[in-house]
Amino acid sequence: MQDYNTIIGAIQMRLNKCPTRSVMDRFRIGSSTLNLIMSRYKAFDLTIDELEAMSPKEVEKLFYPQKNLQRKEVPLPDFQYYYDRIHAPNSRINISFCWLDYKEKNPEGYEKSQFYEYYQRFVQEKDDLVLQSTFSDLEDFYDTIVLPPPARKPNGKPTVENHVRYLETH
Question: Is the pTM of this model over 0.70?
């Protein structure tokens, strides 16, 4: 939540055609915060003079109501599709290109950092599932291995050296 001066100042600077970077630096806000302020300003269809006539608390409640308008129900992207594209043979696609593709299809979707975070979680879950299935397959494999009896000395006792030698050669 930004205070009254940040909201009004950011809107005034953007209306005066100041660069986005200058506004962000002046008020120490990120691009998503500035975009949120400007999109809500445009949605309210008020002039800057009408906003300045309001009390600071009214402006803050108008831009940041109790009910969180910013939290929207955005379905997760199809990460399996992007994973397959990235890992396809001879693919030159990376996660950044996937995010750009996603944003073209879903302009109101997740921003880059959130998309990356959810993708990393997907990959981690996928890797965990692969490891679990690999370990269970290995356990099944080791359960089925039957080692031959070790070689015996003339008096009938097995030797560790002969057993190790047998394992190394086979």
Answer: no
For residue 1, what are the CA distances in angstroms to 26, 61, 66, 68? 17, 10, 11, 11
CB environment 89-126: b (16+ within 10 A), e (fewer) = eeeeeebeebbeebbeeeeebbeeeebeeebeebbeee
Q: Which residues touch 134 (CB under 8 Å, ≥6 apart)? A: none
Residue pLDDT, tens place only, 124-168: 888 776 666 666 666 666 666 656 655 555 555 566 666 666 666
Among candidate residues 1, 13, 142, 150, the one with its CA nearest the CA of residue 64: 1
Residue 82 gets which letter from DSSP?
Answer: H
Q: Residue 34 in contact with residue 21, Cβ under 8 Å?
A: no
DSSP code, position 156: S
**Helix, strand, coil percent content, the chain, rounded in steps of 5:** 65, 0, 35
